[in-house]
Design brief:
Length: 363
């Protein structure tokens, strides 16, 4: 009897040791070309026999192993055989939380940030059970679907940059035939990943940063992309919405007149908000302000129609989002904070900026 008890004790000890070893291994995970993230297994030889990696989204190789990164053939958690039981964003964030090393949606980027820990934070709350048809500015949009990452992105690939879907909630926003690229983003190689970008074994794969839609047609189509859900906000100059109220022009090819001029697609927080000079908290701290003073200055105190404070995914804090474009050709009578930061040059649309008695004057 004692031998049996001893045997069970030894077995239990081995099981516990194995569990602790597995946990320790996960915590000390080191990415490799064939296993770039925990549980993500890819090949290293492409269709041409060259050393490479399987691509997870689109342009799949003929010997792809990428399907298994998200799907389980016999043990899926839902009808689409997804591996992850909690939510679609959990699946996406298994890589895009920084684990893969790039395209981390929890850090600042041209698309904004998914973050709820900082002040003045607001975002597209994917995976929170929000009904798409409840979007601000929704009128014709009656979708009862839940807002997810795939509401805007196609995980299986897209002709548009950043896997932007060719249609949103079933609406072809550009009016173009399927498979026609309708949105070009202004992409530049990310200097933080120069080694990867300069590698000869990546078959042209480049890690890039984006600052938004590129040309005038792209800006209009980008606004229509957002307008598929926020349809009442998709307005031309001088055109009323369905209630005969007027809103800011969003559907225009003119510089600055599209959704991406004022808003981030993913979200914003106090670390990303700017003032009318394009300065962030970090800029003011580097200029000598304390962190507390800079945060108090940049804090967004806007209130929506329901009386709730929200920064509304804005790029610029408070009504600086208006002032940054609508600065008068006359001298600004109010003193801008820390005028010592102003220099002769151009604004973000290329308009000349001249100093006038210590104040910015766009002429």
């Amino acid at each position: 009897m004692s031998k049996i008890k001893l045997g069970f004790s030894a077995l239990l000890t081995l099981i516990l040791l194995g569990m602790f070893a597995a946990l320790a291994s996960a915590e000390g995970f080191t990415a490799t070309p064939s296993n770039p993230a925990p549980g993500i297994n890819v090949g290293t030889i492409d269709n041409n026999g060259d050393a490479n990696q399987h691509r997870t989204h689109g342009n799949f190789q003929n010997n792809t192993n990428s399907c298994g990164n998200c799907h389980s053939a016999h043990n899926g958690s839902n009808e689409t055989l997804l591996k992850f039981q909690n939510s679609e964003p959990d699946m996406c964030l298994s890589c895009h939380d920084g684990t893969m090393g790039f395209y981390n949606v929890k850090t600042a980027s041209g698309a904004g940030i998914f973050n709820s820990t900082h002040e003045s934070a607001s975002m597209h709350d994917v995976g929170k059970g929000i009904q798409i048809g409840s979007a601000p500015g929704a009128y014709a949009n009656k979708s009862v679907g839940e807002l997810e990452c795939s509401s805007c992105h196609n995980p299986h690939g897209s002709v548009n940059d950043r896997l932007l879907s060719e249609s949103v909630i079933g609406v072809s926003y550009s009016g173009l035939t399927k498979g026609t690229k309708s949105i070009n983003l202004e992409l530049k190689e990310d200097p933080a990943y120069a080694d990867i970008n300069n590698s000869s074994t990546m078959s042209g794969l480049k890690i890039t940063t984006s600052v938004g839609p590129k040309g005038n047609t792209d800006k209009v189509n980008y606004a229509k992309f957002c307008g598929a859900c926020h349809d009442d906000y998709l307005g031309s100059s001088g055109a009323p919405n369905h209630t005969n109220h007027y809103g800011h022009t969003t559907n225009s090819s003119s510089a600055g007149r599209n959704c991406a001029s004022c808003h981030y697609a993913h979200g914003t927080d106090i670390t990303m908000l700017k003032d009318t000079q394009g300065k962030t908290i970090a800029d003011y701290v580097n200029g000598g302000w304390t962190q507390e003073k800079a945060e108090a200055y940049m804090k967004d105190v806007s209130v929506n129609s329901k009386g709730v404070k929200t920064s509304s995914l804005k790029k610029y804090t408070n009504m600086a989002v208006c002032w940054t474009c609508h600065q008068s050709s006359h001298a600004i009578d109010t003193q801008q904070p820390e005028d010592k930061y102003l220099t002769d040059g151009v604004d973000r649309y290329g308009n000349p900026i001249k100093l006038f008695k210590g104040k910015s004057d766009i002429r």
